[in-house]
Write a structure and sequence with these properties.
With 282 residues, the chain is of the alpha/beta class. The strands form four sheets. It has an eight-stranded mixed sheet with strand order 5-8-2-1-11-13-14-12, sandwiched between helices. A two-stranded antiparallel ribbon has the order 3-4. Strands 6-7 form a two-stranded antiparallel sheet. Helix 3 packs across helix 4 and helix 6 packs parallel to helix 8.
């Protein structure tokens, strides 16, 4: 991009900067989109850019590959039921150690090294994400029953980017592993966020599963049942789309699924007309 193109991008972005100024944007980042260190640093830099433009950014993250790696080193087998990690009490403690420790603090450090201000927290801090078992067969996999977003709001008001790991609690003090998409949808609703971005290792919702040229740019919630019936939404996309629908039900105006493997996909999604992934609307 030459200097003229850079200037043109800024001119095009101006209405979107105004639209999002002082509004809350929740970004969910996780899974295989987090494995490339250079790309991870670029994503954190994009978040700092958005915060510098006056957008209140909240980063919610998972870290499944890191959890699997640490469990493997501890000779603990990773088990999945319906796409969710079976989590006994021992695994829950490992999840907390990896997500709230290793992954969370590495993301905070990257934001700080790219010129931002960040604080790492988890759903247990400030008793933010209260849970009950999602399904007894899954062990300590959490279904969110109550959200207290005040700690996140306080950090935003102080100019920080809150970095939230998806570890919850219950009345007895047990630790719960929460699906990151689910937690991001619930938290974005509780915060009254303008938009939620789900960064993943897919381009968005595709009309033909393996053909990225068939990207569907815009989906209304009312379209979802027909898309499921046609088989366009199937398999692992169903719970992800359910999270999009849930966030909109909770009052989030727009939800995006975008490709976290592509440099600057957040900026293109938020600050341009064409976007880069699939946008969900009410």
């Amino acid at each position: 991009m030459d200097k003229v193109e850079q200037a043109e991008f800024l001119v095009e972005a101006m209405p979107y900067i105004k639209k999002y100024f002082n509004k809350i944007l929740v970004v969910k980042y996780g899974g295989n989109a987090m494995v490339d260190d250079d790309l991870k640093s670029a994503v954190m830099k994009d978040l700092v850019v958005l915060r510098t433009l006056g957008i209140k950014v909240v980063l919610v993250h998972g870290g499944g590959p890191d959890i699997t790696e640490v469990l493997g080193r501890m000779n603990i087998e990773s088990k999945f039921i319906g796409g969710l990690r079976y989590t006994d009490a021992e695994t829950a403690e490992v999840v907390r150690m990896v997500l709230a420790g290793k992954v969370n603090k590495s993301l905070v450090d990257l934001i700080e090294r790219n010129g931002g201000k960040a604080v790492g927290i988890c759903g247990q801090d400030g008793h933010m994400l209260r849970c009950e078992p999602e399904n007894k067969a899954l062990g300590y996999v959490g279904k969110i029953t109550k959200i207290n977003p005040q700690l996140v709001i306080d950090l935003l008001d102080k100019g920080y980017i809150p970095v939230v790991s998806t570890v919850g609690y219950d009345k007895a003090g047990n630790t719960y592993n929460i699906n990151a998409d689910t937690a991001a949808a619930a938290l974005s609703g509780a915060l009254g966020a303008e938009s939620l971005i789900l960064m993943s290792d897919i381009k968005g919702l595709l009309e033909k599963k393996d053909d990225e040229t068939t990207l569907i740019k815009k989906v209304y919630v009312s379209d979802i049942p027909a898309l499921i019936k046609q088989g366009i939404i199937s398999g692992g996309m169903i719970p992800k789309i359910d999270c999009c629908k849930e966030a909109i039900r909770r009052g989030v105006k727009k939800v995006f699924i975008t490709d976290g493997r592509v440099y600057h996909s957040i900026l293109v999604e938020i600050l341009s007309e064409e976007g880069s992934g699939t946008m969900f609307l009410n």
